[in-house]
C-alpha cells in the first residue's frame, strides 16, 4: 500500500498533510477518503475587513474553516505580527517570573492565556464593537528577558516594548510576573511623559525591597514612583485586600499618591460608582492599566502565585474595564497567571477575556474620542433585543462627569466612603 499526496492549492499555502490510500478491493476502483484542501493548509483562511484608510485588515482564523482547537496558538487566533504590514494594536508575551516571592510559574502564563483565548469571537456585544475590524491587531510573540539577570531582563523587555510601540502602535502585554510593569512604564513614559495608572491587584506592590532585592513583583510601582514615571494625581489601586505588614504600608502608598478602591469597596459601592471614581481620577491623562490576575477571587482565578481570599468576581472586573471606554488608554498588561495551579482553565479563560476587553478599548481609541457611544450608552446590542429586562437607572454620563445612583442615600454613602479614602 502506498501514500498519495493531496493536490496543492496555491491559494491556501503549502500542504502539510497526507491522505492515505485505502487498500484495493477485490474488484472496483481505488477509493481515497475525501478531505478538504483546507484540512491540510498551513495558512488557514482569515476573517478580513477594510480600515477607514483602505488598508486590508487581517482578522482571526475563520472558525467556520478551522475548528477552534486546531491551528497555531496566537492570541484569539489573530495573525502574527510578521504577517501584516503594520499593526495598530499588538499582543506580546513577557514570559519572565524571576521576581516572584511565593509560587512560581507565571513564566508559562502567556502561552496559557493564548490557548485559553481560542473561544473568543470577533464581535464584543457588551461594547457593541468588533475589536478586530477596522484596526489591525496582531500577536507579536514573546519579548525575552534573561531569567538569571534581573536588570538585564528589565532592559531587554523595555527595548522590546519600545520597538513594538514605534509608530504609535499600542501594546497589550501578557506576563510573566508583575515585575514586567516597570519596563512597560519606562517605555510609555519615554513617549507620553508621566503616566496615569490603574492597578488592579490584591496587593499594593509598592513595597521597598524583598531580602534586599529592589526589583521584584512586589516593588514595581515604588520603583516607578522613584523614577518619576507616574502622574501622582492619577494613581489608583483597584481590588486591594488581604493582610499587610503594618500601617506603614498604607502610609508609604499614600505618600506615592495612590488612592485605593478595595475589593470590599467594589462589593459595597457597586461597579457604576467605582467606574465614576476611576474616571474622575484619571481624566484625559495617558492611562496604563496593569492587572494582576489575583485581583480576582481564587474561585475565579486559582492559577496565580499569591492568591488572596475575598476578591472580585470576573464579572465585576470585566464591567469595570468596560467602564473605561473613551479614556486615553495607551497600553495594558495582564500578569501573574500561573497555569500549574489553574483548575479547569478558569484563570486562563478569565485572563483571555480581560485581554480581549483591553483590545476592545484600544481598538475603539480614536473613534471613542471622536464621539463613539460612551460608557452606559454602548449597551444597545443587548438592550434593544425584545424580551430583555433593562435596568433604567442611569449609569455614567462621561461628558459631564455626573452620575446617577440607585438612591440618594447610596450616593451619599458612596461619596463619604470615597472622601474618607481620599480617592
From TrEMBL:
InterPro entries: Agmatinase-rel, Ureohydrolase, Ureohydrolase_dom_sf, Ureohydrolase_Mn_BS. The keyword Cytoplasm does not apply. Residues 1-56, 400-423 are annotated as: Disordered. GO terms for biological process: putrescine biosynthetic process from arginine, via agmatine. Transmembrane segments: none annotated. CDD domains: Agmatinase_PAH. Its EC number is 3.5.3.11. Keywords: Hydrolase, Metal-binding. The keyword Ligase does not apply. SUPFAM superfamilies: Arginase/deacetylase. It comes from the Bacteria. Residues 25-42 have a biased composition (Low complexity). GO terms for molecular function: agmatinase activity; metal ion binding. Gene3D superfamilies: Ureohydrolase domain (3.40.800.10). PANTHER family: ARGINASE/AGMATINASE, GUANIDINO ACID HYDROLASE, MITOCHONDRIAL. Belongs to the arginase family. Agmatinase subfamily. This is Agmatinase.
Amino acid at each position: 500500500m502506498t501514500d498519495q499526496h493531496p493536490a496543492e492549492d496555491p491559494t491556501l499555502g503549502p500542504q502539510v498533510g497526507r491522505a492515505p490510500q485505502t487498500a484495493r478491493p477485490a474488484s472496483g476502483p481505488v477509493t481515497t477518503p475525501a478531505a478538504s484542501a483546507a484540512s491540510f493548509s498551513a495558512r488557514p483562511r482569515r476573517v478580513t475587513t477594510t480600515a477607514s484608510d483602505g488598508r486590508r485588515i487581517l482578522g482571526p482564523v475563520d472558525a467556520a474553516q478551522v475548528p477552534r482547537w486546531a491551528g497555531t496558538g496566537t492570541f484569539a487566533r489573530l495573525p502574527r505580527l510578521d504577517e501584516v504590514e503594520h499593526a495598530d494594536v499588538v499582543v506580546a508575551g513577557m514570559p519572565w517570573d524571576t521576581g516572584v516571592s511565593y509560587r512560581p510559574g507565571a513564566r508559562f502564563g502567556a502561552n496559557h492565556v493564548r490557548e485559553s483565548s481560542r473561544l473568543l469571537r470577533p464581535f464584543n456585544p457588551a461594547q457593541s464593537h468588533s475589536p478586530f475590524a477596522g484596526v489591525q491587531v496582531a500577536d507579536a510573540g514573546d519579548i525575552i528577558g534573561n531569567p538569571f539577570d534581573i536588570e538585564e531582563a528589565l532592559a531587554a523587555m523595555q527595548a522590546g516594548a519600545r520597538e513594538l510601540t514605534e509608530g504609535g502602535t499600542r501594546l497589550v502585554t501578557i506576563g510573566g510576573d508583575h515585575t514586567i510593569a516597570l519596563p512597560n512604564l519606562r517605555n510609555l513614559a519615554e513617549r507620553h511623559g508621566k503616566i496615569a495608572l490603574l492597578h488592579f491587584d490584591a496587593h499594593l506592590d509598592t513595597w521597598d525591597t524583598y531580602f534586599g532585592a529592589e526589583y521584584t513583583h512586589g516593588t514595581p510601582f515604588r520603583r516607578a514612583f522613584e523614577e518619576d514615571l507616574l502622574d501622582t494625581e492619577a494613581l489608583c489601586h483597584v481590588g486591594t485586600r488581604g493582610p499587610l505588614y503594618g500601617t506603614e504600608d498604607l502610609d508609604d502608598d499614600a505618600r506615592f499618591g495612590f488612592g485605593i478602591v478595595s475589593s470590599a469597596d467594589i462589593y459595597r459601592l457597586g461597579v457604576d460608582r467605582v467606574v465614576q471614581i476611576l474616571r474622575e481620577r484619571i481624566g484625559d491623562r495617558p492611562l496604563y492599566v496593569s492587572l494582576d490576575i489575583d485581583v480576582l477571587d481564587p474561585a475565579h482565578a486559582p492559577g496565580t502565585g499569591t492568591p488572596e481570599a475575598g476578591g472580585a468576581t470576573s464579572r465585576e472586573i470585566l464591567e469595570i474595564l468596560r467602564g473605561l471606554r473613551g479614556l486615553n488608554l495607551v497600553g495594558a498588561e495582564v500578569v501573574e497567571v500561573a497555569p500549574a495551579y489553574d483548575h479547569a482553565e478558569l484563570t486562563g479563560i478569565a485572563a483571555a477575556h480581560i485581554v480581549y476587553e483591553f483590545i476592545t478599548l484600544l481598538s475603539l481609541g480614536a473613534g471613542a474620542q471622536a464621539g463613539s457611544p460612551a460608557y452606559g450608552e454602548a449597551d444597545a446590542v443587548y438592550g434593544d433585543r425584545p424580551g430583555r429586562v433593562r435596568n433604567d437607572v442611569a449609569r455614567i454620563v462621561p461628558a459631564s462627569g455626573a452620575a446617577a445612583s440607585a438612591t440618594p442615600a447610596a450616593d451619599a454613602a458612596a461619596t463619604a466612603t470615597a472622601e474618607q479614602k481620599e480617592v
